[in-house]
């Protein structure tokens, strides 16, 4: 199994303490949990503006390269493509973990390819990879209440009621990510959608 191509798991977010608890940073939160599960430790990459952790899924399982871009969201693609090329990761083995306005809070969904739905991190990744055919773990944050602008909503912290469920949902998103690596997107969809 160790001969297989590695997987590049991209937790999308913005660098800096002021963004740490934002809805837009849930990708970072999931990447950090995956690093702790696989025994990886994040450190600054020499080749790109990103933090990287390496580990394996299970004993002798596929190699995982976990990535937290240190560029802002709309420039996430450059470090992703730099590390995909360095580690020889095919687009089919790239997974983006990101917040999703079009999925209700409390739901985590998997998919491969498709549009970016106005998500600047995905748009940057698609452009840099010259493909949309990477997998996505879509962490539902729902639509903003009232007339709040989506841009302000994604850059705000989770509400108190949401924070009570947040650890469970980050855990679920990490499970979905691991399921994609182990069994593929379709299997993950059948296992986790509507649960």
UniProtKB/TrEMBL annotation:
It comes from the Bacteria. The record marks 99 as: Stabilizes the basic form of H active site to accept a proton. Its EC number is 3.1.1.29. Keywords: Cytoplasm, Hydrolase, RNA-binding, tRNA-binding. It catalyses: an N-acyl-L-alpha-aminoacyl-tRNA + H2O = an N-acyl-L-amino acid + a tRNA + H(+). It holds the Pfam family Pept_tRNA_hydro. The keyword Kinase does not apply. TRNA binds at residues 19, 72, 74, 120. The keyword Glycosyltransferase does not apply. The active site is at 24 (proton acceptor). PANTHER family: PEPTIDYL-TRNA HYDROLASE (PTHR17224:SF1). Hydrolyzes ribosome-free peptidyl-tRNAs (with 1 or more amino acids incorporated), which drop off the ribosome during protein synthesis, or as a result of ribosome stalling. This is Peptidyl-tRNA hydrolase. It comes from Actinoplanes derwentensis.
């Amino acid at each position: 199994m160790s001969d297989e191509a590695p997987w590049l798991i991209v937790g999308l977010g913005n660098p800096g303490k002021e963004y740490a608890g934002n809805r837009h940073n849930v990708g970072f939160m999931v990447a950090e949990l995956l690093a702790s599960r696989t025994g990886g430790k994040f450190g600054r990459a020499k080749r790109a503006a990103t933090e990287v952790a390496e580990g394996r899924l299970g004993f002798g399982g596929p190699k995982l390269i976990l990535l937290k871009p240190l560029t802002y969201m709309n420039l996430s693609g450059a470090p992703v493509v730099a590390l995909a090329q360095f580690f020889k990761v095919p687009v089919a083995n790239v997974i983006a973990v990101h917040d999703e306005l079009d999925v209700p809070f409390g739901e985590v969904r998997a998919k491969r390819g498709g549009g970016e739905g106005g998500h600047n991190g995905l748009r940057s990744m698609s452009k840099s990879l010259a493909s949309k055919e990477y997998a996505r773990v879509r962490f539902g944050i729902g639509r903003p209440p009232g007339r709040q602008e989506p841009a302000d909503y994604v850059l705000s912290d989770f509400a108190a009621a949401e924070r009570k469920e947040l650890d469970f949902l980050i855990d679920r998103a990490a499970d979905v990510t691991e399921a994609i690596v182990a069994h593929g997107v379709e299997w993950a969809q059948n296992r986790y959608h509507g649960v």
